[in-house]
Amino acid sequence: MVNINPSIAIKLDNKTSVAMGIMYYDVDSLVFNSQGININGSGDGYGWNLAMLHSTKNWDFGLSYKSTVKANLSGSFTSSSGPFPAVSSVEFPDMLQLGLLYRINDRFNMEFDIEHTGWSVFDQIVIEYAYSSVTTSTNNWQDSLTYRLGATYALSDNTRLRFGYSKDDTPQPEATFSARLPDNDRQLFSIGIGHDFSGWTLDAAYMRVVVDDRTINSSIVYPSAGTDPNGSSAYNGTYESDINLLGLGISTTF
After folding, report:
1. Is the pTM of this model over 0.85?
2. Hey, is 246 helix, strand or coil?
3. CATH of residue 215
4. How many structural domains comprise the chain?
5. Angstrom distance (rounded) from CA 45 to CA 29
6. Contacts of 61 (CB under 8 A, 6+ apart)
7. Which residue, among 212, 120, 204, 196, has the nearest Cα to 156 in the 3D structure?
8. What is the three-class DSSP state of 6?
9. Containing domain of residue 166, as a range?
10. In angstroms, what CA-CA distances link 85 with 35, 36, 244?
11. Which of 125, 162, 183, 250 is the most exposed place for a label (fewest CB within 10 A)?
12. pLDDT tens digits, the chain, 254 residues: what are they?
């Protein structure tokens, strides 16, 4: 998926600025496979975003909002009966984020963010294909909250050390758990360093993602024809995830 987000920022005064933009999502080759079927589609959609930043001597306050984006998809539905043209749509959630930064001294900053993600729009996916046939995947995801705490310490005028912690609640209820997207509550721990040199900035970071194990023993039986076995007993079991991320970036301004 490609997200293009041109934005414009306006400085209202020495302390406050606002920004707004248009979001374009290009969804390519979204795969939706299940028991005996293969669904592949592409499409696009539009949304918008707003943001505000207010700064004082020791505090920064930020607020941002990204709207939902509905992407209309077209592609193919393949089963034992053969391939058929198919259409569907996927709605991406809106996001509301509040952030606070406190400058403890000239070298040390701390930041706290809270983010609300409207995953409840991901209630079901309906695929329409040949002869008005319909396949429905019921998800019934719930809105979720993410909490983040970060710190930046300046080792020198050119070098900064960063630390971060995040707690992310899963939006996926057990009743509609799917092995297609096996999610659970997670904690994220990160450390990074940035260094400025000759008009460039080099950044390196490591993140450890600790995902709670999830045991599913109560998946429902296979649903009736025309529905996707999203929560069938075939998905009972224990799901484990182990994630380590490394990042390296270089940037310049002109």
Report:
1. no
2. strand
3. 2.40.160.60
4. 1
5. 15
6. 53, 54, 55, 99, 100
7. 196
8. coil
9. 2-252
10. 19, 17, 39
11. 250
12. 889 999 999 999 999 999 999 999 998 776 666 555 567 778 899 999 999 999 999 999 999 999 999 998 888 777 666 677 888 888 999 999 999 999 999 999 999 999 999 999 988 888 887 666 777 778 889 999 999 999 999 999 999 999 999 999 999 888 777 777 778 899 999 999 999 998 899 999 999 999 998 887 765 554 554 555 544 555 678 888 889 999 999 999 77
Q: How many residues make up the chain in this entry?
A: 254
Rg from Cα positions in the chain: 22
CA pair distance 251, 15, nearest whole angstrom: 26
The token pair at 53 is 């930043």
Q: Tokens in use for 114?
A: 């809270």
Residue type, 16: T
Tokens (6 digits) for 212: 């709670």
